[in-house]
Amino acid sequence: AQSVTQLDSHVSVSEGTPVLLRCNYSSSYSPSLFWYVQHPNKGLQLLLKYTSAATLVKGINGFEAEFKKSETSFHLTKPSAHMSDAAEYFCVVSDEYGNKLVFGAGTILRVKS
Amino acid sequence: DGGITQSPKYLFRKEGQNVTLSCEQNLNHDAMYWYRQDPGQGLRLIYYSQIVNDFQKGDIAEGYSVSREKKESFPLTVTSAQKNPTAFYLCASSTGSGSLETQYFGPGTRLLVL
Asked: Which residue of A has its CA nearest to B55?
């Protein structure tokens, strides 16, 4: 069965420094992978998705993620953090039938001024 | 504006009471979903519907029920059989149910037990 592991429950960075949120997945097929962001008490917004095209995926707000099959990873990065990036981030994989999404436990990103 | 609306924003349930959470979308999406979110656990799928008058159980359907009588509406009932209903409930929709489809989320309903 497919699963997602987000390696850090909390990440803290200073404004203007790089962001790295780590995600590893387990899947017996070629998955679709997503990153969603959730601001406090809000719904989720799609940041980016990987669907077997280019391995480096660019998303909104300057985020990008690289699909590495050999490492089963899909880490999310941003060159320079902004205060508005403070939120919870979810790494997500589709199930093998493409009907359902499987969510990681989430990583809370804190940005210090 | 197109989007997904959920109401109410906060809902209180008394012991033994059934409560219904509303989810409406005007995106003309075929598929709709209900998730439950608990701290530190990510989102878990309760029910989903790929088309009107049809729905399937997700991973944690026990104690919940749904209906899909109209394309734009997918209400979720939390029954008295759900012993731990306190959570944040999120509704989502997508154009279809395939893995390439982006799910769009509503703002959520927080359910609390009195």
From this structure: A99
